[in-house]
Write a structure and sequence with these properties.
single chain, alpha/beta, Rossmann fold, binds flavin mononucleotide, FMN_Rdtase-like_dom, NAD(P)H-dep_reductase, FMN, NAD(P)H-dependent oxidoreductase, Flavoprotein-like_sf
Length: 205
């Protein structure tokens, strides 16, 4: 698994250039968030059950000020170096997976902002949505799916919904994704398998 903006060190990471890369885009930037642990757990499953490379993308490492581009994103003529870099990052990926908490029945604002900075880069991009929350984050998934449809992303059918326990949400208990989400591991594997198929359908024979 690879972390954004860090040099590859692990043997898996060093072979990442030869494998299609799936970006796991984290929806949460909150301090004290559980998102990185969840994204890493998903990356481990993905590495184990596919030949894809997985890179966790922390939007905190991608400062994209709100509405700072003078042109509409669909033109693709970005003036800001950070938007150009974000565009290249998404364009170079074989697929993306949004790993997002549900916030007040929706998804976090920084994720919408990161999506809205681009337009054509998302079109046809194989993509999965993995949400979490007290009830799995289904409302968040619904909203993300609607946005992804508007952008004509190549969404996979399976949307794993990971249920956080009361202890984690209310009492800040340590999260062990392997135990907490044991019953959802198959659904994550299924989403990854669908991503492989989606990527293959776009690759030249
Ligand atoms: C602003 C905010 C809104 C939330 N709204 C919901 C919600 O609608 N449904 C839910 O199940 N949990 C909700 N939660 C609880 C989150 O599921 C829980 O805090 C989770 O750990 C958030 O992910 P993060 O720690 O990676 O940021 C909310 C948390 C925050 C911070």
């Amino acid at each position: 698994m690879i972390h954004a903006n860090t040099p590859a060190k692990h043997p898996i990471e060093s072979s990442h250039r030869t494998r299609p890369v799936v970006l796991l885009i984290m929806g949460s930037q909150r301090s004290g968030r559980v998102c990185p642990q969840i994204a890493q757990w998903i990356a481990q499953i993905g590495e184990a059950c596919t030949d894809l490379a997985f890179e966790v993308v922390d939007l905190a490492d991608w400062p994209l000020p709100v509405d700072d581009e003078p042109e509409l994103p669909h033109r693709g003529s970005y003036r800001q170096p950070h938007t150009q870099a974000w565009s290249e990052k998404i364009s170079a990926a074989a697929a993306v997976a949004f790993v997002s908490p549900q916030y007040n029945w929706g998804y976090p604002a920084p994720l919408k902002n990161a999506i809205d900075h681009l337009y054509g880069e998302w079109r046809g991009k194989p993509a999965a949505i993995i949400t979490y929350g007290g009830h799995g984050g289904g409302k968040c998934a619904e909203q993300l799916r609607q946005v992804a449809a508007g952008l004509k992303m190549g969404m996979v059918a399976t949307s794993p919904a990971l249920t956080l326990s009361e202890d984690v949400i209310r009492h800040g208990a340590a999260l062990d994704p392997e135990t907490e989400f044991a019953s959802s591991a198959d659904s994550v594997k299924q989403a990854m398998a669908e991503l492989v198929t989606q990527i293959a359908s776009l690759s030249p024979a």
